[in-house]
Amino acid sequence: MFAEIVEGSTRLLVPERSLASPQEIKKALPPVFFNPRMKLNRDITCALVRALLAGGESIQFLDLLAASGAKGLRIAKEAKAEVHLNDGSESAVELIKKNAQLNQLSVGVSQSEANLFLVSHRGSFNFIDIDPFGTPVPFLHNAILALPPRGYLAVTATDTAPLCGVYPKACFRKYFSIPIRGELCKEVGLRILIAAIAREAAKLRRGTRVLLSHATDHYFRAIVALRSGRRRADEALAKLGYLHYCTSCGRREVELSSLPSQKKCVCGESYSIAGAMWLGELKDASLARKAAEEAAYLEDRRTQKVLVTIADELEVPFFYDLHRLARRLSLHELPTMEKILEELHRRGYSATRTHISATGVRTDAPYEVLLEVVRGLIKNS
Ligand SMILES: C[S@@+](CC[C@H](N)C(=O)[O-])C[C@H]1O[C@@H](n2cnc3c(N)ncnc32)[C@H](O)[C@@H]1O
Ligand SMILES: [Zn+2]
Question: Can you say how many angstroms the Cα of residue 150 is from the centroid of all Cα atoms in its chain?
């Protein structure tokens, strides 16, 4: 049984079961995968591809693991890019064809194992989207090899339990990095995912530049530009490093290095270490802003809001969670986010929100200053 929905401005037939609650879906899997909660992921990709096309790029988009075709067909319809959709499942490919017809779209469609498809289509697509069940790691190598010397790679990871430190061994096995639990787990997870891409690209002599990345809902997403060159590969690897985090007082230090050094927090406690991870930029701010403008055609305002927050977000690794801070300082109330940002600005520091957490503040102010600002605002309220 299929139901017709509209996402963005694309009509989609999707299994009725996929619109049920996650618990219901687990009881009996739908014949083809479709997750309505991944709409933001698809919206953001459409907006970004539109921004690239508006900037004069030409895009040959491969939706490698297309399922119902939701993402690739939306890219074809809403960004008007050239698109090919692939999936290993026969019922998925049937549905993709029906959905292409429903929207009168002319796209390429194939049924193939993803790695085999990549190996036999080198140089055919300059934008490859990997949207797997769980980790994208098994597809990275062949996807990077399949790209031309200048290409784009978009990667989704839904294995948040390993990346957020619930299963550190699984994270180390798949990503060769140590995750962390607690307030910084999502940002660390996102940076570990990007590091895995940058390392795989470097092996193949390509440099990585992040165009857009986000940790929203229940997954991580990174869209990067890859360019051939030994020097570019080395420059990307030089952006990898470690986080030293004090679970006792909340201080943190980042270290750009291939190996972490032994450090102690000024409070006397030992630091927890996470990494290696990407400590470079999490987006190209001007492209993110253009994508935000492009997202104006979407009825759902959330996408544009998230993109604006990402574009404005300060490029300082690791935000402070205000609720955590309140607990640490044994505060029963908190000043508003606006007041805190305003006071940090008044003192000459940069400070912004983060898309990762509604209660997170990114700032270049030292930790002591942030604590002083929060305490001071409460005293005067
Ligand atoms: C998470 S879904 C993709 C969701 C889709 N991009 C969307 O936005 O709705 C993953 C898809 O990958 C396909 N798949 C998984 N492993 C594969 C492989 N090794 N080769 C080809 N297809 C594969 C599955 O059949 C499934 O349809
Ligand atoms: Zn400490």
Answer: 21
